[in-house]
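Below is how a single chain appears once it has passed through the pipeline. First comes the sequence as given, then the structure the pipeline wrote out for it. We keep one example in the README because the format questions we get most often are answered faster by looking than by reading.
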Amino acid sequence: MDRVILTGGYETAELFRSFRQDLPLLAETSGKNAIIVTPSADLDLAAKDVAYSAFGHAGQKCSAASLVILVGSVAKSRRFHNQLIDAVTSLKVGYPEDPASQMGPIIEPANGKLLNALTTLGEGESWAVEPRKLDGTGKLWSPGVRSGVRRGSYFHLTEFFGPVLGVMTAETLEEAIAIQNQIEYGLTSGLHSLNPEEVGLWLDTVQAGNLYVNRGITGAIVQRQPFGGWKKSAVGAGTKAGGPNYLVGLGEWVSAPSTATGAPAHAGVRRIEQAARDFLDAVELESLERALASDALAWTEEFGTAKDVSGLSAERNVFRYRALPVTVRLSEGEPSPVWSARSPPVSWRAPR
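Resulting structure:
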């Protein structure tokens, strides 16, 4: 077996890796996703998108919203509170054979951490909408919204994969982003704001693979929004499904002569070149310089450029790469130069 492609929980990826340590595993795993709402947001649209993102498919999508983080005055906004509660409580819960159903059952009777999330409050928490078991199967639950979720709490940091949403608050957008980034997962993330500076700050600092501005955070479409995450939301060297790089992980790399010319594109790579001059011979140095020139060309034409390949008039779907700091040790006993290497790509979209 050459490699395994897996979509499932992080624990499942760990299990597969335990079977064979040398097996290339390309896994899209769990998510603990949040939507931030700032005072500049369209609160009616935000409430709709939060409810849809949290309770579509009964919250059983890895991209579903598990948290909403309310910034500043939004935390005290009766308008947003009432709109969110109305949106959640008006959902028609039922089985698929009822065409009026808007939220269906979970895939198995609630147990373990999901049952805990549906029935047990943490310190300082209260039910804004208390979830209820609707029949004897244990699969059909009404949606739940818990207020007062504290930073660092069990509900803040744990993935549950079901119809329950936690409400958190932050004084500033920076604090909200820190709350979001504290989570070990980084699959999808949302921001509702009409302030361009807030949008820019969030796009530059949030840690997630798919970023959604002023819309729901589920329902990625092939090519428009290649799908995949950071941190514990991705395992292995896989790239985002539905994007231009996905097939790269299914093939093998072979060396090819480089004819590119030019200086290294970023400072970290230049440091590698400078360090290498101390111990490489002329032939090896020439090979390294060709490789660095090739890197510079790739950075200029692909990896350092944000693109909207779909070019829709109604929304922007921007595909970009983000830098990830890594450390490489050349060989035992040698110094370890550090540079910024390219991470799996990140895409975000927003209505134009």
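The chain has nine helices and 16 strands.

See the next section for the split statistics.
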